[in-house]
Protein backbone atom coordinates (compact mmCIF):
# COMPACT_ATOMS: atom_id res chain seq x y z
CA UNK A 1 0.00 0.00 0.00
CA UNK A 2 2.87 2.31 0.86
CA UNK A 3 4.50 1.56 -2.51
CA UNK A 4 1.20 2.26 -4.25
CA UNK A 5 0.82 5.59 -2.49
CA UNK A 6 4.42 6.60 -3.26
CA UNK A 7 3.96 5.46 -6.86
CA UNK A 8 0.86 7.63 -7.36
CA UNK A 9 2.60 10.60 -5.77
CA UNK A 10 5.63 10.17 -8.00
CA UNK A 11 3.53 9.74 -11.14
CA UNK A 12 1.26 12.70 -10.38
CA UNK A 13 4.32 14.85 -9.70
CA UNK A 14 6.08 13.65 -12.87
CA UNK A 15 3.08 14.02 -15.17
CA UNK A 16 1.57 17.33 -13.98
CA UNK A 17 2.45 20.32 -16.17
CA UNK A 18 1.76 24.04 -16.07
CA UNK A 19 1.19 24.42 -19.80
CA UNK A 20 -1.19 22.56 -22.15
CA UNK A 21 -0.85 18.77 -22.35
CA UNK A 22 -2.65 15.77 -23.80
CA UNK A 23 -3.86 12.79 -21.76
CA UNK A 24 -2.78 9.37 -23.03
CA UNK A 25 -4.19 7.06 -20.34
CA UNK A 26 -3.91 5.90 -16.73
CA UNK A 27 -0.85 4.74 -14.77
CA UNK A 28 -0.60 1.04 -13.85
CA UNK A 29 1.24 -0.75 -11.04
CA UNK A 30 1.34 -4.50 -10.49
CA UNK A 31 -0.96 -5.00 -13.45
CA UNK A 32 -3.70 -2.79 -11.92
CA UNK A 33 -4.80 0.62 -13.21
CA UNK A 34 -4.42 3.43 -10.68
CA UNK A 35 -7.69 5.30 -11.22
CA UNK A 36 -7.18 9.05 -11.45
CA UNK A 37 -3.40 8.94 -11.98
CA UNK A 38 -3.34 10.27 -15.52
CA UNK A 39 -0.35 10.01 -17.84
CA UNK A 40 0.02 13.22 -19.83
CA UNK A 41 2.48 14.60 -22.34
CA UNK A 42 3.27 18.34 -22.43
CA UNK A 43 2.51 20.01 -25.76
CA UNK A 44 5.66 22.11 -25.37
CA UNK A 45 8.05 19.18 -25.92
CA UNK A 46 6.19 17.29 -28.63
CA UNK A 47 8.54 18.75 -31.22
CA UNK A 48 11.39 16.79 -29.55
CA UNK A 49 10.50 13.75 -31.68
CA UNK A 50 9.38 10.32 -30.57
CA UNK A 51 9.10 6.57 -31.02
CA UNK A 52 6.09 4.25 -31.00
CA UNK A 53 7.17 0.61 -31.13
CA UNK A 54 5.89 -2.88 -30.41
CA UNK A 55 5.25 -6.25 -32.01
CA UNK A 56 2.49 -6.78 -34.55
CA UNK A 57 -0.99 -6.60 -33.03
CA UNK A 58 -0.04 -4.81 -29.80
CA UNK A 59 -1.73 -1.49 -30.67
CA UNK A 60 0.91 0.76 -32.30
CA UNK A 61 -1.48 2.10 -34.91
CA UNK A 62 -4.13 2.94 -32.30
CA UNK A 63 -1.52 4.78 -30.23
CA UNK A 64 -0.62 6.81 -33.32
CA UNK A 65 -4.34 7.47 -33.86
CA UNK A 66 -4.76 8.68 -30.26
CA UNK A 67 -1.84 11.09 -30.54
CA UNK A 68 -2.96 12.50 -33.91
CA UNK A 69 -6.57 13.11 -32.83
CA UNK A 70 -5.54 14.69 -29.53
CA UNK A 71 -3.10 16.96 -31.37
CA UNK A 72 -5.87 17.92 -33.76
CA UNK A 73 -8.12 18.91 -30.84
CA UNK A 74 -5.34 21.21 -29.64
CA UNK A 75 -5.09 22.86 -33.06
CA UNK A 76 -1.91 21.05 -34.14
CA UNK A 77 -2.00 19.56 -37.69
CA UNK A 78 -0.23 16.28 -38.41
CA UNK A 79 1.03 14.24 -41.34
CA UNK A 80 0.48 10.45 -41.18
CA UNK A 81 2.07 7.77 -43.36
CA UNK A 82 -0.64 5.13 -43.73
CA UNK A 83 1.22 2.10 -45.06
CA UNK A 84 -1.31 -0.55 -43.99
CA UNK A 85 -4.41 1.53 -44.79
CA UNK A 86 -5.92 1.38 -41.29
CA UNK A 87 -5.66 5.04 -40.24
CA UNK A 88 -8.54 6.41 -42.31
CA UNK A 89 -10.99 5.78 -39.45
CA UNK A 90 -9.73 8.92 -37.71
CA UNK A 91 -12.06 10.88 -40.01
CA UNK A 92 -15.29 9.59 -38.37
CA UNK A 93 -16.42 9.27 -34.71
CA UNK A 94 -16.18 5.96 -32.85
CA UNK A 95 -19.38 3.93 -32.56
CA UNK A 96 -18.45 3.20 -28.93
CA UNK A 97 -18.37 -0.15 -27.14
CA UNK A 98 -18.89 -1.44 -23.58
CA UNK A 99 -15.21 -2.50 -23.46
CA UNK A 100 -14.20 1.08 -24.23
CA UNK A 101 -16.39 2.41 -21.40
CA UNK A 102 -14.90 -0.19 -19.06
CA UNK A 103 -11.37 0.89 -19.99
CA UNK A 104 -12.12 4.56 -19.37
CA UNK A 105 -13.82 3.86 -16.07
CA UNK A 106 -10.60 2.18 -14.94
CA UNK A 107 -8.51 5.13 -16.14
CA UNK A 108 -10.73 7.68 -14.45
CA UNK A 109 -12.25 9.89 -17.17
CA UNK A 110 -15.25 9.33 -19.48
CA UNK A 111 -15.03 8.31 -23.12
CA UNK A 112 -16.10 10.89 -25.72
CA UNK A 113 -16.46 9.94 -29.37
CA UNK A 114 -15.16 12.39 -31.96
CA UNK A 115 -13.65 12.77 -35.41
CA UNK A 116 -10.84 14.84 -36.89
CA UNK A 117 -10.69 16.85 -40.14
CA UNK A 118 -8.82 14.70 -42.68
CA UNK A 119 -7.11 15.29 -46.02
CA UNK A 120 -6.11 12.22 -48.05
CA UNK A 121 -2.84 12.55 -49.97
CA UNK A 122 -1.28 10.12 -52.44
CA UNK A 123 2.03 9.33 -54.14
CA UNK A 124 0.58 6.73 -56.48
CA UNK A 125 -2.71 5.71 -58.04
CA UNK A 126 -4.63 5.84 -54.76
CA UNK A 127 -7.35 8.52 -54.79
CA UNK A 128 -6.42 11.75 -53.04
CA UNK A 129 -4.40 14.94 -53.41
CA UNK A 130 -1.34 14.26 -55.58
CA UNK A 131 2.05 14.82 -53.96
CA UNK A 132 4.65 16.01 -56.45
CA UNK A 133 7.90 17.96 -56.55
CA UNK A 134 10.19 19.13 -59.35
CA UNK A 135 13.82 18.13 -59.71
CA UNK A 136 14.79 21.79 -59.46
CA UNK A 137 13.21 21.87 -55.98
CA UNK A 138 15.15 18.76 -55.02
CA UNK A 139 18.47 20.26 -56.03
CA UNK A 140 21.66 18.40 -57.05
CA UNK A 141 22.92 17.60 -53.54
CA UNK A 142 19.73 16.03 -52.23
CA UNK A 143 19.03 14.16 -55.46
CA UNK A 144 22.60 12.82 -55.63
CA UNK A 145 22.40 11.59 -52.04
CA UNK A 146 19.09 9.95 -52.72
CA UNK A 147 20.62 8.04 -55.66
CA UNK A 148 23.77 7.29 -53.62
CA UNK A 149 26.01 8.66 -56.38
CA UNK A 150 29.80 8.52 -56.36
CA UNK A 151 31.87 11.71 -56.12
CA UNK A 152 32.37 11.79 -59.90
CA UNK A 153 28.65 11.25 -60.50
CA UNK A 154 27.78 13.97 -57.96
CA UNK A 155 29.97 16.35 -59.96
CA UNK A 156 28.07 15.54 -63.15
CA UNK A 157 24.76 16.07 -61.37
CA UNK A 158 25.99 19.49 -60.19
CA UNK A 159 26.88 20.38 -63.79
CA UNK A 160 23.41 19.32 -64.98
CA UNK A 161 21.65 21.61 -62.53
CA UNK A 162 24.16 24.44 -63.14
CA UNK A 163 23.72 24.25 -66.91
CA UNK A 164 19.93 24.31 -66.59
CA UNK A 165 20.06 27.22 -64.13
CA UNK A 166 22.45 29.21 -66.36
CA UNK A 167 20.22 28.73 -69.38
CA UNK A 168 16.81 29.10 -67.64
CA UNK A 169 15.89 25.50 -68.49
CA UNK A 170 13.38 24.04 -65.99
CA UNK A 171 14.21 20.56 -64.64
CA UNK A 172 10.79 19.18 -63.78
CA UNK A 173 10.76 15.39 -64.08
CA UNK A 174 13.00 12.40 -64.74
CA UNK A 175 12.52 12.71 -68.51
CA UNK A 176 14.01 16.19 -68.30
CA UNK A 177 17.02 14.87 -66.44
CA UNK A 178 17.54 11.99 -68.86
CA UNK A 179 17.26 14.32 -71.86
CA UNK A 180 19.78 16.74 -70.34
CA UNK A 181 22.29 13.98 -69.58
CA UNK A 182 22.02 12.60 -73.12
CA UNK A 183 22.33 16.08 -74.62
CA UNK A 184 25.45 16.86 -72.60
CA UNK A 185 27.24 13.77 -73.91
CA UNK A 186 25.98 13.92 -77.49
CA UNK A 187 24.67 16.96 -79.39
CA UNK A 188 25.77 19.47 -76.76
CA UNK A 189 29.08 17.81 -75.91
CA UNK A 190 31.28 20.60 -77.34
CA UNK A 191 29.21 23.32 -75.69
CA UNK A 192 29.36 21.60 -72.29
CA UNK A 193 33.08 20.83 -72.48
CA UNK A 194 33.84 24.45 -73.36
CA UNK A 195 31.82 25.78 -70.41
CA UNK A 196 32.17 23.12 -67.68
CA UNK A 197 34.85 20.66 -68.75
CA UNK A 198 34.70 17.12 -70.04
CA UNK A 199 32.13 14.68 -68.62
CA UNK A 200 32.78 10.97 -68.19
CA UNK A 201 30.41 8.98 -70.39
CA UNK A 202 30.75 6.00 -68.04
CA UNK A 203 29.57 8.09 -65.09
CA UNK A 204 26.67 9.48 -67.10
CA UNK A 205 25.68 5.94 -68.09
CA UNK A 206 25.75 4.86 -64.44
CA UNK A 207 23.44 7.74 -63.49
CA UNK A 208 21.03 6.80 -66.27
CA UNK A 209 20.90 3.22 -64.96
CA UNK A 210 20.07 4.49 -61.48
CA UNK A 211 17.25 6.59 -62.95
CA UNK A 212 15.78 3.41 -64.41
CA UNK A 213 15.85 1.81 -60.96
CA UNK A 214 14.12 4.85 -59.51
CA UNK A 215 11.46 4.78 -62.23
CA UNK A 216 10.77 1.10 -61.55
CA UNK A 217 9.71 2.10 -58.03
CA UNK A 218 7.23 4.64 -59.40
CA UNK A 219 9.23 7.82 -58.75
CA UNK A 220 8.36 9.14 -62.20
CA UNK A 221 4.88 9.89 -60.79
CA UNK A 222 6.36 11.84 -57.89
CA UNK A 223 8.55 14.18 -59.95
CA UNK A 224 6.43 16.71 -61.78
CA UNK A 225 4.03 19.61 -61.43
CA UNK A 226 2.07 21.04 -59.73
CA UNK A 227 4.42 20.89 -56.75
CA UNK A 228 2.89 20.35 -53.32
CA UNK A 229 3.23 23.36 -51.02
CA UNK A 230 4.15 22.17 -47.51
CA UNK A 231 2.29 25.18 -46.10
CA UNK A 232 -0.87 23.22 -46.90
CA UNK A 233 0.13 20.77 -44.15
CA UNK A 234 -0.45 23.52 -41.57
CA UNK A 235 -4.17 24.03 -42.11
CA UNK A 236 -6.88 24.06 -39.45
CA UNK A 237 -10.63 23.76 -39.93
CA UNK A 238 -13.26 26.36 -39.07
CA UNK A 239 -13.36 25.06 -35.47
CA UNK A 240 -9.61 25.51 -35.04
CA UNK A 241 -8.81 21.79 -35.15
CA UNK A 242 -5.61 20.76 -36.89
CA UNK A 243 -6.07 18.96 -40.21
CA UNK A 244 -4.78 15.37 -40.22
CA UNK A 245 -3.11 14.78 -43.61
CA UNK A 246 -2.98 11.05 -44.37
CA UNK A 247 -0.61 9.84 -47.11
CA UNK A 248 -2.09 6.63 -48.47
CA UNK A 249 0.82 4.24 -49.13
CA UNK A 250 -0.93 0.86 -49.28
CA UNK A 251 0.23 0.18 -52.85
CA UNK A 252 3.90 1.16 -52.46
CA UNK A 253 5.00 -1.01 -49.53
CA UNK A 254 7.42 -2.82 -51.84
CA UNK A 255 8.93 0.44 -53.14
CA UNK A 256 10.94 1.80 -50.21
CA UNK A 257 13.10 4.07 -52.37
CA UNK A 258 10.04 6.07 -53.41
CA UNK A 259 8.92 6.27 -49.78
CA UNK A 260 12.39 7.41 -48.67
CA UNK A 261 12.59 9.92 -51.51
CA UNK A 262 9.26 11.45 -50.55
CA UNK A 263 10.15 11.66 -46.85
CA UNK A 264 13.53 13.22 -47.51
CA UNK A 265 12.18 15.83 -49.92
CA UNK A 266 9.27 16.67 -47.64
CA UNK A 267 11.53 17.23 -44.63
CA UNK A 268 14.03 19.21 -46.71
CA UNK A 269 11.25 21.45 -48.04
CA UNK A 270 9.84 21.96 -44.55
CA UNK A 271 13.26 22.81 -43.17
CA UNK A 272 14.05 25.27 -45.97
CA UNK A 273 10.70 27.09 -45.91
CA UNK A 274 9.51 27.06 -42.29
CA UNK A 275 10.87 29.91 -40.13
CA UNK A 276 12.79 29.29 -36.93
CA UNK A 277 10.32 28.98 -34.05
CA UNK A 278 12.36 28.72 -30.86
CA UNK A 279 10.46 27.49 -27.78
CA UNK A 280 6.69 27.48 -28.34
CA UNK A 281 3.76 26.20 -26.30
CA UNK A 282 2.96 23.57 -28.93
CA UNK A 283 4.46 22.24 -32.17
CA UNK A 284 3.56 23.67 -35.54
CA UNK A 285 3.36 20.23 -37.19
CA UNK A 286 3.88 16.60 -36.16
CA UNK A 287 4.89 13.93 -38.71
CA UNK A 288 4.21 10.25 -37.99
CA UNK A 289 6.23 7.77 -40.08
CA UNK A 290 4.52 4.38 -39.84
CA UNK A 291 6.52 1.26 -40.72
CA UNK A 292 9.68 3.35 -40.28
CA UNK A 293 11.90 0.33 -40.94
CA UNK A 294 10.96 0.72 -44.63
CA UNK A 295 12.87 4.00 -44.60
CA UNK A 296 15.92 2.81 -42.68
CA UNK A 297 16.29 -0.75 -44.02
CA UNK A 298 16.59 0.26 -47.68
CA UNK A 299 18.17 3.69 -47.31
CA UNK A 300 21.74 4.21 -48.49
CA UNK A 301 24.40 5.40 -46.05
CA UNK A 302 24.29 8.91 -47.49
CA UNK A 303 20.50 8.98 -47.26
CA UNK A 304 20.70 7.86 -43.62
CA UNK A 305 23.20 10.62 -42.93
CA UNK A 306 20.78 13.14 -44.44
CA UNK A 307 17.88 11.80 -42.38
CA UNK A 308 19.92 12.02 -39.20
CA UNK A 309 20.80 15.64 -39.94
CA UNK A 310 17.14 16.45 -40.62
CA UNK A 311 16.04 14.87 -37.32
CA UNK A 312 18.51 17.07 -35.48
CA UNK A 313 17.67 20.30 -37.28
CA UNK A 314 13.95 20.21 -38.04
CA UNK A 315 12.96 20.50 -34.36
CA UNK A 316 13.94 24.18 -34.43
CA UNK A 317 11.22 24.72 -37.05
CA UNK A 318 8.54 23.58 -34.60
CA UNK A 319 8.17 20.16 -36.24
CA UNK A 320 8.13 16.83 -34.41
CA UNK A 321 9.01 13.49 -36.07
CA UNK A 322 7.53 10.27 -34.68
CA UNK A 323 8.78 6.90 -35.93
CA UNK A 324 6.43 3.90 -35.69
CA UNK A 325 8.08 0.48 -35.96
CA UNK A 326 8.13 -3.00 -34.43
CA UNK A 327 11.36 -2.75 -32.48
CA UNK A 328 13.53 0.17 -31.35
CA UNK A 329 16.55 -1.55 -32.93
CA UNK A 330 14.95 -0.77 -36.32
CA UNK A 331 15.99 2.85 -35.74
CA UNK A 332 19.68 3.84 -36.01
CA UNK A 333 21.16 4.75 -32.64
CA UNK A 334 22.09 8.22 -33.86
CA UNK A 335 18.39 8.87 -34.55
CA UNK A 336 17.10 6.99 -31.51
CA UNK A 337 19.16 9.20 -29.21
CA UNK A 338 17.28 12.25 -30.53
CA UNK A 339 13.82 10.94 -29.58
CA UNK A 340 12.44 12.49 -26.38
CA UNK A 341 9.11 10.63 -26.33
CA UNK A 342 8.92 6.83 -26.21
CA UNK A 343 5.79 4.71 -26.21
CA UNK A 344 6.68 1.02 -26.08
CA UNK A 345 4.10 -1.73 -26.60
CA UNK A 346 4.79 -5.40 -25.94
CA UNK A 347 7.71 -7.20 -27.56
CA UNK A 348 7.58 -10.94 -28.26
CA UNK A 349 10.53 -13.21 -27.38
CA UNK A 350 10.39 -16.22 -29.69
CA UNK A 351 14.13 -16.59 -30.30
CA UNK A 352 17.43 -15.82 -28.61
CA UNK A 353 17.79 -12.86 -30.97
CA UNK A 354 14.38 -11.57 -29.80
CA UNK A 355 15.44 -11.83 -26.14
CA UNK A 356 18.62 -9.92 -26.88
CA UNK A 357 16.61 -7.22 -28.68
CA UNK A 358 14.31 -6.93 -25.65
CA UNK A 359 17.26 -6.41 -23.32
CA UNK A 360 18.58 -3.70 -25.62
CA UNK A 361 15.15 -2.07 -25.80
CA UNK A 362 14.89 -2.00 -22.00
CA UNK A 363 18.10 0.00 -21.83
CA UNK A 364 16.46 2.84 -23.79
CA UNK A 365 14.22 3.74 -20.84
CA UNK A 366 14.94 5.65 -17.61
CA UNK A 367 15.70 3.49 -14.60
CA UNK A 368 12.71 2.75 -12.36
CA UNK A 369 12.09 1.20 -8.93
CA UNK A 370 8.57 0.13 -9.84
CA UNK A 371 9.03 -2.21 -12.83
CA UNK A 372 11.22 -5.03 -14.06
CA UNK A 373 11.35 -3.59 -17.56
CA UNK A 374 12.86 -6.66 -19.28
CA UNK A 375 10.06 -8.87 -18.00
CA UNK A 376 7.27 -6.32 -18.35
CA UNK A 377 8.07 -5.73 -22.03
CA UNK A 378 6.93 -9.27 -22.84
CA UNK A 379 3.82 -9.13 -20.62
CA UNK A 380 2.15 -5.89 -21.71
CA UNK A 381 -1.43 -6.41 -22.83
CA UNK A 382 -3.04 -5.00 -25.98
CA UNK A 383 -3.58 -1.27 -25.50
CA UNK A 384 -0.92 -1.07 -22.77
CA UNK A 385 2.48 0.57 -23.09
CA UNK A 386 5.53 1.82 -21.28
CA UNK A 387 5.76 5.59 -21.67
CA UNK A 388 8.37 8.23 -20.96
CA UNK A 389 8.50 11.76 -22.35
CA UNK A 390 10.24 15.06 -21.70
CA UNK A 391 8.72 17.41 -19.18
CA UNK A 392 8.50 21.15 -19.75
CA UNK A 393 12.13 21.56 -18.66
CA UNK A 394 13.33 18.89 -21.07
CA UNK A 395 13.93 16.29 -18.35
CA UNK A 396 12.70 12.70 -18.94
CA UNK A 397 9.51 11.88 -17.04
CA UNK A 398 9.32 8.72 -14.89
CA UNK A 399 8.83 5.50 -16.83
CA UNK A 400 5.21 4.44 -16.42
CA UNK A 401 3.19 1.37 -17.38
CA UNK A 402 0.10 2.92 -18.99
CA UNK A 403 -3.42 1.76 -19.76
CA UNK A 404 -3.98 3.76 -22.96
CA UNK A 405 -7.21 5.59 -23.58
CA UNK A 406 -9.29 4.44 -26.57
CA UNK A 407 -9.24 6.43 -29.80
CA UNK A 408 -12.22 8.79 -30.02
CA UNK A 409 -12.54 7.97 -33.71
CA UNK A 410 -13.33 4.72 -35.49
CA UNK A 411 -10.78 1.93 -34.97
CA UNK A 412 -11.30 0.53 -38.45
CA UNK A 413 -10.80 1.33 -42.12
CA UNK A 414 -13.29 3.57 -43.92
CA UNK A 415 -15.20 2.18 -46.87
CA UNK A 416 -14.22 3.40 -50.32
CA UNK A 417 -17.48 5.35 -50.50
CA UNK A 418 -16.65 7.15 -47.23
CA UNK A 419 -13.14 7.92 -48.47
CA UNK A 420 -14.49 9.28 -51.76
CA UNK A 421 -16.93 11.48 -49.87
CA UNK A 422 -14.08 13.05 -47.87
CA UNK A 423 -11.98 13.50 -51.02
CA UNK A 424 -14.88 15.20 -52.79
CA UNK A 425 -15.04 17.79 -49.99
CA UNK A 426 -11.34 18.65 -50.30
CA UNK A 427 -10.50 22.32 -50.78
CA UNK A 428 -7.15 21.66 -52.46
CA UNK A 429 -7.57 18.54 -54.61
CA UNK A 430 -8.55 20.40 -57.80
CA UNK A 431 -5.50 22.61 -57.46
CA UNK A 432 -2.98 19.78 -57.05
CA UNK A 433 -4.54 17.16 -59.30
CA UNK A 434 -4.54 19.43 -62.33
CA UNK A 435 -2.13 18.00 -64.90
CA UNK A 436 0.49 20.59 -65.96
CA UNK A 437 2.87 19.87 -68.81
CA UNK A 438 4.75 23.11 -69.42
CA UNK A 439 7.80 23.43 -71.60
CA UNK A 440 10.78 22.14 -69.67
CA UNK A 441 14.23 20.67 -70.31
CA UNK A 442 13.01 17.77 -72.45
CA UNK A 443 11.14 20.04 -74.89
CA UNK A 444 13.64 22.93 -74.82
CA UNK A 445 16.66 20.73 -75.52
CA UNK A 446 14.79 18.81 -78.20
CA UNK A 447 14.01 22.11 -79.94
CA UNK A 448 17.66 23.05 -79.63
CA UNK A 449 18.67 19.71 -81.16
CA UNK A 450 16.06 20.03 -83.93
CA UNK A 451 17.20 23.59 -84.70
CA UNK A 452 20.82 22.46 -84.90
CA UNK A 453 19.84 19.59 -87.19
CA UNK A 454 17.79 21.94 -89.37
CA UNK A 455 20.71 24.38 -89.57
CA UNK A 456 23.04 21.50 -90.46
CA UNK A 457 20.60 20.35 -93.15
CA UNK A 458 20.37 23.84 -94.64
CA UNK A 459 24.16 24.11 -94.62
CA UNK A 460 24.46 20.70 -96.23
CA UNK A 461 22.00 21.60 -99.00
CA UNK A 462 23.77 24.91 -99.63
CA UNK A 463 27.07 23.10 -99.84
CA UNK A 464 25.59 20.67 -102.35
CA UNK A 465 24.31 23.58 -104.48
CA UNK A 466 27.75 25.20 -104.47
CA UNK A 467 29.28 21.89 -105.38
CA UNK A 468 26.84 21.49 -108.28
CA UNK A 469 27.62 25.01 -109.51
CA UNK A 470 31.33 24.37 -109.40
CA UNK A 471 30.83 21.08 -111.19
CA UNK A 472 28.76 22.82 -113.93
CA UNK A 473 31.41 25.51 -114.45
CA UNK A 474 34.08 22.88 -114.68
CA UNK A 475 32.02 20.99 -117.25
CA UNK A 476 31.58 24.16 -119.41
CA UNK A 477 35.27 24.93 -119.20
CA UNK A 478 36.03 21.36 -120.05
CA UNK A 479 33.89 21.48 -123.27
CA UNK A 480 35.59 24.67 -124.48
CA UNK A 481 38.98 23.24 -123.69
CA UNK A 482 38.12 20.08 -125.57
CA UNK A 483 37.05 22.13 -128.61
CA UNK A 484 40.11 24.30 -128.46
CA UNK A 485 42.43 21.40 -128.01
CA UNK A 486 40.85 19.32 -130.78
CA UNK A 487 43.20 18.80 -133.81
CA UNK A 488 40.50 19.61 -136.38
CA UNK A 489 39.52 22.72 -134.45
CA UNK A 490 43.12 23.86 -134.32
CA UNK A 491 43.53 23.22 -138.11
CA UNK A 492 40.38 25.16 -138.94
CA UNK A 493 41.56 27.96 -136.72
CA UNK A 494 44.90 28.11 -138.47
CA UNK A 495 43.27 28.09 -141.91
CA UNK A 496 40.86 30.87 -140.98
CA UNK A 497 43.68 32.90 -139.52
CA UNK A 498 45.81 32.39 -142.65
CA UNK A 499 43.03 33.44 -145.02
CA UNK A 500 42.25 36.47 -142.89
CA UNK A 501 45.91 37.40 -142.97
CA UNK A 502 46.12 36.96 -146.73
CA UNK A 503 43.03 39.06 -147.30
CA UNK A 504 44.32 41.78 -145.06
CA UNK A 505 47.74 41.81 -146.88
CA UNK A 506 46.11 41.98 -150.33
CA UNK A 507 44.09 44.99 -149.26
CA UNK A 508 47.17 46.72 -147.93
CA UNK A 509 49.11 45.96 -151.23
CA UNK A 510 46.33 47.43 -153.39
CA UNK A 511 46.42 50.65 -151.41
CA UNK A 512 50.14 50.99 -152.00
CA UNK A 513 49.64 50.74 -155.77
Task: Offer a few descriptive terms.
single chain, 513 residues, alpha/beta, Rossmann fold, 2 domains, 12-stranded mixed sheet, 19 helices, 12 strands
Architecture overview:
This protein is an alpha/beta fold. The chain has two domains: 2-131 and 250-432, Rossmann fold (3-Layer(aba) Sandwich), CATH 3.40.50.300; 135-220 and 439-448. The protein contains 19 helices and twelve strands. The protein has a twelve-stranded mixed β-sheet with strand order 2-1-12-11-10-3-9-8-4-7-5-6. The chain is elongated and about 145 Å long. The N and C termini lie far apart (171 Å). The model has no long low-confidence stretch (mean pLDDT 84).
